[in-house]
């Protein structure tokens, strides 16, 4: 059981992490590198006379292969970590509620993982282009973690506590972090074009959704296969 | 009968043990890839942290 759980999470993490890294190189990293041109001052969008201008042109992946190899490596680590948590949840739900572990149910777990870990925190703290000044790190990390935990608890109540009370308490938990509000600065300091920041946020979320879907599907697939 | 009576709680316990272990390992991996602030680690994980929306710096 333990061996099957750990190896299934690792296999699924490697597949989801590799695909997610590939998608990031196609859609996300070019935007990130374009954002760095504004961070370094190589490009300027907001002119001192109040006008705006800049070309829309990502610099491409360039030649920093060591840097990109690290991105692949850390994606594998991150998705394996999330895979372990996801499978722990599936096994727990089976032990307590008799919920079967199948690739199809795994896909739903994966999408719920995306909702709790990527989308819910991004509602308050959008994924940031490099060079975007933000509030102090510690309060943001606390809000980020608190939002994930509240959303996981909320989704768990909606899914497993039958009846209206579970739905209501679950929704309150999911909304609570946003009523409290994420830590933000009092002023806007962004130096990159707003369109670029928005595209970076939506692209990174969209690609993470695919990663999480694959993670849930394959975690359950390998786990179910290991038990036969 | 005896077998099933004793086997089920044991299986459930090993299931919970496996969950706890997976939880600890998962959080440890995510601390390294997403949260740890050591400069070398931060710089290496930088692009991935931005792409996965970890609150990073």
Automatic annotation (TrEMBL), chain A:
Source organism of this protein record: Salinihabitans flavidus
Instruction: Identify the keywords attached in UniProt to this record, alphabetized.
Output: Membrane, Transmembrane, Transmembrane helix
UniProt name for this protein: Cobalt transporter subunit CbtA
Q: What's the superkingdom here?
A: Bacteria
Q: Name one Pfam family in it.
A: CbtA
The membrane spanning regions, by residue number, are 72-93, 105-122, 142-160, 167-185, 205-224
Secretion signal, residue range per the UniProt entry: none
Automatic annotation (TrEMBL), chain B:
Q: Which InterPro entries match?
A: CbtB_put
Q: Origin, by domain of life?
A: Bacteria
| Pfam families from the UniProt entry | CbtB
What is the species of this protein? Salinihabitans flavidus
Recorded protein name is Cobalt transporter subunit CbtB
